[in-house]
Design brief:
Rossmann fold, 171 residues, two-stranded antiparallel sheet, 7-stranded mixed sheet, 11 strands, alpha/beta, globular
């Protein structure tokens, strides 16, 4: 994986999907990337849906986006918590507008809708939030991974290999 000298943010909040957090985290690390875990500041340690825990390196209102190559938003119910924090939504919008990679899987599409970056974009997600994404202006498709410019989306944990392959390819 050609990720040396690359730097990524992975967002975290309570009830994150454990696989959708840890799989990208370790794939990026394995490839030589620097990974910064960014939380909302609501906790010192966040608990995933399956019970694993992770600590944030920094809170969303404390990180500078210069030098960041992309942001990954895991699903689970965490995105519904994340979007309650303007600093977390602002990170997604700022990196998207800077043409950096914005990668979202499963329920993470909620963050894309809250960041108001979906108008005219083709995306995928867990089918349960299809209406939310369509109402935010996206064209929704049922595919394992969709790349639309700097936006990468996938549906579920089974799609993680395709999701990460697309992220690496597009970086």
């Amino acid at each position: 994986m050609p990720l040396h000298e690359k730097k990524f943010i992975i967002l975290i909040e309570e009830m994150f999907n454990d696989l959708e957090f840890w799989y990208p985290y370790y794939r990026l690390k394995e490839g030589g990337a620097e990974v910064v875990v960014v939380g909302s500041g609501s906790a010192k340690e966040y608990c995933g849906k399956s019970g694993t825990t992770a600590k944030a390196d920094v809170n969303a209102d404390q990180i500078l986006t210069s030098g960041i190559d992309g942001i990954i938003i895991p699903g689970g119910y965490a995105p519904d918590h994340m979007r309650r924090y303007p600093s977390m939504v602002g990170l997604v919008k700022e990196l998207f507008d800077a043409r950096k990679i914005v990668a979202a899987i499963c329920h993470a599409g909620w963050m894309l809708a809250s960041a108001k970056i979906l108008k005219g974009r083709t995306v995928t997600s867990v089918p349960a939030i299809k209406d939310d994404l369509v109402n935010a202006g996206a064209k929704w498709v049922d595919e394992e991974v969709v790349v639309d410019g700097n936006l990468i989306t996938s549906r579920k944990p089974d799609d993680l290999p395709a999701f990460m392959s697309a992220l690496v390819r597009e970086t």
